[in-house]
Amino acid sequence: MSTCVLRGATVLTMNDARDVVTGPVVVRDGVIAQVGGAVPADLPAIDVSGCVLLPGFVQTHVHLCQTLFRGAADDLALLAWLRQRVWPMEAAHDAASLRVSTRLAVHELLRTGTTAVLTMETVHGTEVVLETLAASGLRATVGKCLMDSDDAAPARLKQAVAPAIDEALALHRAFDGSADGRIRVALAPRFAVSCSRALLEAAADVSASRALLVHTHASEQRDEIAVVRRLAGMGNLAYLADTGLATPRLCAAHCVWVDEEEQALMAERDVKVLHCPGSNLKLGSGLAPIVEMQRRGITVSLGADGAACNNRLDMFDEMRLAATLQAVRLGPGALPARDVVWMATRAGARTLGLGDVIGQVTPGYRADLIAVDVSGPLVAPSTDLYSSLVYACRGTDVRLTMVDGDVLVRNGEHRGVDPQALAASAHVEARRLRTRAGL
After folding, report:
1. Whose CA is closest to 227, among 122, 74, 78, 90?
2. Cα separation of 58 and 318, whole Å?
3. Whole-angstrom Cα distance, residue 154 to residue 192?
4. Adjacent-strand bridge partners of 32
5. Which residues, in sequence order, are CB contacts of 418 under 8 Å at separation 6+?
6. What are the residues whose beta carbons fall under 8 Å from the beta carbon of 181, sequence distance 6 or more?
7. How many whole angstroms separate alpha carbon 120 and alpha carbon 118?
8. What is each CA distance from 19 to 33, 259, 358, in whole angstroms?
9. Gap between the Cα atoms of 170 and 176, Å rounded
């Protein structure tokens, strides 16, 4: 439908005033045309009564290529998790397994209300991921993984600086702006442990010359920080700054162990932080100082990370954990529910450089919208919508997911996807992949 009206919901606009509107939302040619007020009765309508309508969630740190690794890398700390399981499986990917892994992730993301992602893939085959995403309807900013060092990494995952950068730029030329602008390409140096200084500096140069986002990991775990200090003679964030990467385009996942000096650096350089509470807990990484970073003006958004270290890609889980873990650190109410929903929408949009495109229900913005049912007995009574979303709702409460005005999920049905067939193909490809990896 080029024009439709969403009727019956309470609208959390997530605009600067955080206006709450009771009334229809009109979508025309993929853009929000009207919020509230009277609309013609003859417009095609979608009934979302009993729902809260809000911007789709923006997950700023995921690994779609790791979805087939779900349950295959449990109970390990970060470096062992990478070296013993994740890297061997990433090296064993082929086109068929990457395609199924991406489709499996997209299904979970859209079904649970995520409409946009920032994703880091593996070293080879990212074109398969991009092609699958372009056909899926999801909005995505994607980077091929860049890594050229770490003796424990499989040879297939180590790629010299020049060909790695050349391949990343080839992907940018081929895919950036495709699918009517839904698909963009970023740079994705994995982290300082597996990237030489030459590779990090090359990524910084390309980012500066082409205004590309840089997606990396930083200060996730103490052992990682010790390795970086041994290799570079300085802390993780200081090293990224020294290579030229610490700019407003840098998107740094985790940042669990960042001291006041590093937080000040990130605030001064407008480095974006990608908070992944579920992954940080499962890998035993620690509790990130989210409230302190926000007080400094650092943009902190949310992501589930990968299914290999979280097992779920559901933003509702991450919102609940984000709030409750800060309550453990600093006391109840340290990170209120309304601020967590902001992290999941507006902060994510700003991190992607799309703050004037998505992230709020405002005329002129792209129609990336979700309707979440708050009328059921497991959520009722829904007296505070922000509280309901963060503490009571689940991904299965998402009734509608729309990207660019295109309804991809309606009443729990993901258009064009047979969930059982998808699960069956995932089982087959996961077995084949683990056999190739020798696991």
Report:
1. 78
2. 12
3. 17
4. 27
5. none
6. none
7. 7
8. 17, 36, 16
9. 10
For the stretch 292-329, what's the b/e string if a residue is b when 16 or more beta carbons lie within 10 angstroms of its beta carbon? Answer: bbbeeebbbbbbbbbbbbbbbbbbbbbbbbbbbbbeee
Cis peptide preceding 154, ω within 30 of 0: no
> Which tokens in the block code for residue 10?
């309470």
Buried b (16+ CB within 10 A) or exposed e, 73-108: beebebbebbbebbbbbbbbbeeebbbbbbbbbbbb
Burial of 413 (0-12, 13-18, 19+ CB in 10 A): exposed
Question: b/e per residue, 330-340, with b = 16+ CB within 10 A?
Answer: eeeebbbbbbb
Nearest Cα to 371, choosing from 321, 342, 316, 409?
409
pLDDT in tens, 130-163: 999 999 999 999 999 999 998 899 999 999 999 9
- Convert the pLDDT of each residue in 350-409 to its tens digit: 999 999 999 999 999 999 999 999 999 999 999 999 999 999 999 999 999 999 999 999
What's the order of all strands across the beta sheet hosting 20-22? 20-22, 10-12, 51-55, 369-373, 398-403, 406-410, 413-414
Structure tokens at 388: 């309901």
Q: Give dist(CA 120, CA 306) in Å, integer.
A: 10
Angle at 173 between CA 369 and CA 144, to 5 degrees: 70
- The single residue listed with the structure tokens 């040619």 is 29
Q: Confidence band (pLDDT; 50, 70, 90) for 2?
A: confident
Q: CA 121, 125, 127, 129: dihedral to nearest 10 degrees?
A: -50
Cα 314 from chain centroid (whole Å): 10
Distances in whole angstroms, Cα of residue 253 to Cα of each of 62, 188, 271, 306, 310:
10, 11, 11, 12, 14
The pLDDT mean for the chain works out to 97
- pTM for the whole structure: 0.97
